[in-house]
TrEMBL record:
Gene3D superfamilies: Calcium-transporting ATPase, cytoplasmic domain N
Organism: Rhipicephalus microplus (Cattle tick)
InterPro entries xrefs: ATPase_P-typ_cyto_dom_N
GO molecular function: nucleotide binding
Protein name: Uncharacterized protein
């Protein structure tokens, strides 16, 4: 699971700074909070988190599923990609409403919401040589009010 991440704050010559976040929760259940400097972060206030959430959802072939018998969430696909789906659900910078939904439906609200905002035109799958996965996406009407612009985008997820 993702427990810490950072985004660029500013990058001026000789002056680079980051925003560092901590994430609670240690299972595939997308229940947890995002903190910055010990206080709950409002992820909507950080434009980069809108893009990070979109990358987590659109450059991803994995998901989570609720196992009724075990009463637990399980990964569907690669563990690393599943962890990114869970992170996107915890961040929810778009403010998708999860109230009144079943546990299973609430768990994928952000993922489904982001996927409704973009139409994936094609994907360059992750490979050892490229060490990245890229998805070329065109915005739908649902994306009209986002901070990510109005034109097509190439979202890229990079591995170490």
């Amino acid at each position: 699971m993702v427990s810490r991440f950072f985004i660029l704050d500013k990058a001026d010559p000789g002056d680079i700074s980051f925003h560092e976040f901590e994430v609670t929760g240690s299972t595939y259940e997308p229940i947890g909070e995002v903190f910055k400097n010990g206080a709950k972060a409002n992820c909507a206030n950080y434009e980069a988190l809108h893009e990070l959430t979109t990358i987590c959802c659109m450059c991803n072939d994995s998901s989570i599923d609720f196992n009724e018998y075990k009463q637990a969430f399980e990964k569907v696909g690669e563990a690393t990609e599943t962890a990114l789906i869970v992170l996107a659900e915890k961040m929810n910078p778009f403010g998708f409403d999860k109230s009144g939904k079943s546990r299973r439906d609430a768990a994928l609200t952000v993922n489904h919401g982001v996927q409704a905002m973009w139409k994936k035109e094609f994907t360059l799958e992750f490979s050892r040589d490229r060490k990245s996965m890229s998805s070329y996406c065109a915005p739908t009407r649902a994306a009209a009010n986002t901070k990510l612009g109005t034109g097509p985008k190439m979202f890229v997820k990079v591995g170490p």
